[in-house]
Amino acid sequence: MAGTQGKVIAQNKKARHDYFIEETYEAGMVLQGTEIKSMRAGRMNLKDSFARIKNGEMYLHNAHISEYEQGNRYNHEPERARKLLLHKKQINQLIGLTKQQGYSLVPLKVYIKNGYAKILIGLAKGKKNFDKRETLRRKDAKREVERALKDRMRG
């Protein structure tokens, strides 16, 4: 749905391993001044973070943005809940989808687009352990096929 432009700040690589991503949404982030400065320096971590809808607004929880070194007393709290900006129609659609069993909202990546911090949120369904093993098996098989083709092209 959304193509990234600009600098990718943080990625949640574990998300695609742990979840089936059904759909993605691009959302803006409401940040404080020291947060965006710290993000531009690349000091953000999306590990174990998630999005939740509360009172018709979406929030990002457990995303760690390190304190800005020159922030002194105006610094932010590293793991505070941050508001995400989406259209009301999209939020209502997501409320309906997340009420279904097994769906959750997972942040996939954070990037700067046209000077604004954006986050790519994925509507995700959790994988079971056998699904994860199957995915790894397919990935290994694909790698082996590519390696065999590469060797054949050389020889």
From TrEMBL:
Residues making up the signal peptide according to the UniProt record: none
Entry annotated with the keyword RNA-binding: yes
Coiled coil: none
Compartment annotation: Cytoplasm
Protein name per Swiss-Prot or TrEMBL: SsrA-binding protein
Gene3D superfamilies: 2.40.280.10
InterPro entries linked: SmpB (IPR023620), SsrA-bd_prot (IPR000037), SsrA-bd_prot_CS (IPR020081)
